[in-house]
Amino acid sequence: MAVILNVIYFLYAVHLYFDAKNHVSGDDEEEYEYEEIEDRGVIANIFTFNFNALFFSNRTFTATSAVVVISLAIAVISGASHILVEGVLGSATVLGVPQFFAGLVFGAAASSVPDLILSIKDAQKGEYEDAVANPLASNTFDTTIAFALPLLAWFIINGVDSLPLVQDDNLTILRWSIVGVTAAVAASLLFNYKKVTKTIAYFLLAMFTVWAASMYFVIQ
After folding, report:
1. Exposed, middle or buried, 173 (CB in 10 Å: 0-12/13-18/19+)?
2. How many domains is the chain partitioned into structurally?
3. What letter would DSSP give residue 57?
4. Which residue from 22, 63, 99, 153 puts its CA 20 to 30 A from 43's CA?
5. Same domain assignment for residues 28 and 65
6. pLDDT of 26 strictly over 60
7. Among positive and negative, which fits the CA dihedral 44, 48, 54, 59?
8. In contact, 91 and 106? CB cutoff 8 Å
9. Whole-angstrom Cα distance, residue 28 to residue 6?
């Protein structure tokens, strides 16, 4: 299963690449516009992780500077992710809920904050397609590579071919509820593929709120 998920994402990425090449001509390509982040001084740049200002005097990105900045950003995100995991496990203990549930609600919400910020910025610019595509693409990556690659690594390191799932009535309800919510989200977007309205946005927010609250009481 882990291998299949990785292959699915690879085929998905290849499809997107060729689809973009076929639908974007040379005249239609938008010129890249570098959005300069204000240089607030060394101390402020350190606290805001403005690596381009710290190491490259806030100049327009080159291939080298882009690789350095994104590598440093990944290192920061990796450290923050470790703290996030510890916080999620702690919240599960405090609330008396399974770690699985805490990860789905608190972990998923916190790790999606960068996607939320990017989508808000795109929406403010009027780039609504990017605003919607960003979380969809991110979750496609999460459910394939981010899930399957660590799983595959675990199988290889431990020399096993399968991993038994914890069998529990509450967890079974939780798993099926995730499938149901996912289907509802997909249906709301597929049946309104020509436009996404404010009503749909409210519907999706309300659906997550109701799901999280109901699952909290179900698994108690």
Report:
1. middle
2. 2
3. T
4. 63
5. yes
6. no
7. negative
8. yes
9. 32
